[in-house]
């Protein structure tokens, strides 16, 4: 496959950008190395690379692009915001409008604060939980990625696990010691951790539906039990809904599953493709945040009119009837096609799907936790990834990442994708 221009650009990028990429998950290190594809343009469900090749995109920028690229309603909102001045450093009416939309969609958030990334949102929920409880330790689930702040880059999945560095250098052990990591979907281990450290725990950090070692649903009653046991020891429950909010329904996974956290962190989709994060929760907890309370958090860019306008426009699109049903329908077709192809060609494949998001683990056993996800064959994924890329299907260069459908994908795109899956499986033998 001719990707000559990408290769040239990669050489240039290596000269000026560390590793040639601005986020390690974009590197092809986990799929055998070489130049990542440099994209030039995106529209709807498609990308065009610098060598002129077209791709159907399932990366969706790791989640945010649920409306498809360059959705006209969002583009118009961003243009209007830019024309009115990109940054004020003062409050705006847009912020009230967007915070109200989020509160209405996710009622556990009495009060909201906007930040600039998912990393910031999670980092701050932890600070607020510590301020509220007067405790320091947190619990997280192994393999779950919660951004790159010190405290949560401990036994993390997503990028770090893919690169084989579950603990980053540069994080003091004194910080790592504040984090207890337990397996997802195992309530006994969770209870044992609380029995040992319960009175020191400020909060547990939960992805209510895991999106970072593939898509993994919680076992029945797992989240309810986590809530009950956590509250019993006086700690808070934080939901990291950076992937999940507005992914499966207009609202959070918490609304889909009927469980409520004390604090929620948001990002990705709520920015409509521009940088954003947000966190929110119960009024009395959020009132710990400055200027009302002693927990400090600030941001020059926080609540900037462009990101907020893009976010409002994105939610306006998602509020239209039938959107999530369409994503679910296309997801089901894709899941069926993947499973059928795997069976036909004798490939061990686990497809985990929740509506318009799915993951492909090349392994015999079902994947319900990180340990099982780790067992998926990375070599086979790398071959599959490259075959799909050559046939114009853009997936994430990591066996752990999900495929995300957008409302721009058509039935025809899915059929083409399934054909490419079959061709890939034939060539992989
Ligand atoms: N939490 C989760 C669940 C995520 O998937 C991510 C990003 N992949 C983050 C937090 C961090 O968000 P950001 O990259 O915007 O800092």
Automatic annotation (TrEMBL):
Family, per entry: Belongs to the class-III pyridoxal-phosphate-dependent aminotransferase family. HemL subfamily.
EC number, UniProt record: 5.4.3.8
CDD domains cross-referenced by the UniProt entry: OAT_like
SUPFAM superfamilies the record matches: PLP-dependent transferases
The species this protein was found in: Ammoniphilus oxalaticus
Entry-linked Pfam families: Aminotran_3
Associated pathway: Porphyrin-containing compound metabolism; protoporphyrin-IX biosynthesis; 5-aminolevulinate from L-glutamyl-tRNA(Glu): step 2/2
Subcellular location: Cytoplasm
Record field: catalytic activity: (S)-4-amino-5-oxopentanoate = 5-aminolevulinate
Gene3D superfamilies named in the record: Aspartate Aminotransferase, domain 1, Type I PLP-dependent aspartate aminotransferase-like (Major domain)
InterPro entries reported in the protein's UniProt record: 4pyrrol_synth_GluAld_NH2Trfase (IPR004639), Aminotrans_3 (IPR005814), Aminotrans_3_PPA_site (IPR049704), PyrdxlP-dep_Trfase (IPR015424), PyrdxlP-dep_Trfase_major (IPR015421), PyrdxlP-dep_Trfase_small (IPR015422)
Group of enzyme by EC: isomerase
GO molecular function: glutamate-1-semialdehyde 2,1-aminomutase activity; pyridoxal phosphate binding; transaminase activity
Transmembrane segments: none
Principal localisation: cytoplasm
Keyword set, alphabetical order: Aminotransferase, Cytoplasm, Isomerase, Porphyrin biosynthesis, Pyridoxal phosphate, Transferase
Record PANTHER family: GLUTAMATE-1-SEMIALDEHYDE 2,1-AMINOMUTASE, GLUTAMATE-1-SEMIALDEHYDE 2,1-AMINOMUTASE 2
BP GO terms, sorted: protoporphyrinogen IX biosynthetic process
Name of the featured protein: Glutamate-1-semialdehyde 2,1-aminomutase
Organism superkingdom: Bacteria
């Amino acid at each position: 496959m001719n990707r000559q221009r990408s290769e040239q650009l990669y050489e240039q990028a290596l000269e000026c950008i560390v590793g040639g990429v601005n986020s390690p998950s974009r590197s092809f290190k986990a799929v055998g190395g070489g130049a990542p594809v440099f994209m030039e343009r995106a529209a709807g469900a498609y990308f065009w690379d610098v060598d002129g090749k077209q791709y159907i995109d399932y990366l969706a920028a790791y989640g945010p692009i649920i409306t498809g690229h360059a959705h006209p309603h969002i583009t118009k909102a961003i243009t209007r915001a830019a024309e009115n001045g990109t940054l004020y450093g003062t409050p705006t009416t847009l912020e009230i409008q967007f915070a109200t939309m989020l509160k209405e969609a996710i009622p556990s958030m009495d009060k909201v604060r906007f930040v600039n990334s998912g990393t910031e949102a999670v980092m701050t929920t932890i600070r607020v939980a510590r301020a509220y409880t007067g405790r320091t330790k947190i619990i997280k689930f192994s393999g779950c990625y919660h951004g790159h702040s010190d405290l949560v880059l401990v036994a993390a999945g997503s990028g770090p696990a893919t690169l084989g560095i579950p603990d980053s250098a540069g994080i003091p052990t004194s910080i790592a010691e504040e984090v207890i990591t337990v397996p997802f979907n195992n309530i006994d281990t969770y209870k044992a951790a609380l029995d040992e450290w319960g009175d020191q725990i400020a909060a547990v950090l939960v992805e209510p539906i895991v999106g970072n070692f593939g898509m993994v649903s919680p076992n029945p009653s797992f989240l309810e039990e986590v809530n009950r046991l956590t509250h019993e020891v006086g700690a808070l429950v934080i939901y990291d809904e950076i992937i999940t909010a507005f992914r499966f329904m207009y609202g959070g996974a918490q609304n889909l599953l009927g469980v409520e956290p004390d604090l929620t962190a948001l990002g990705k989709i709520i920015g409509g493709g521009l940088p954003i994060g947000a966190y929110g929760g119960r009024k009395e907890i959020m009132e710990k945040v400055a200027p009302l309370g002693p927990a400090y958090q600030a941001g020059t860019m926080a609540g900037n009119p462009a990101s907020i306008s893009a976010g409002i426009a994105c939610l306006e699109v998602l509020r239209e009837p039938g959107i999530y049903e369409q994503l679910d329908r296309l997801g089901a077709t894709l899941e069926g096609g993947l499973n059928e192809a795997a069976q036909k060609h004798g490939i061990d494949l686990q497809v985990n799907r929740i509506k318009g998001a799915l993951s492909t683990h090349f392994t015999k056993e079902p994947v319900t936790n990180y340990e099982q996800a780790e067992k998926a064959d990375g070599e086979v994924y790398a071959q599959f990834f490259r075959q799909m890329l050559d046939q114009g299907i853009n997936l994430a260069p990591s066996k752990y990442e999900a495929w995300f459908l957008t409302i721009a994908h058509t039935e025809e795109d899915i059929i083409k994708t399934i054909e490419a899956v079959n061709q890939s499986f034939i060539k992989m033998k």
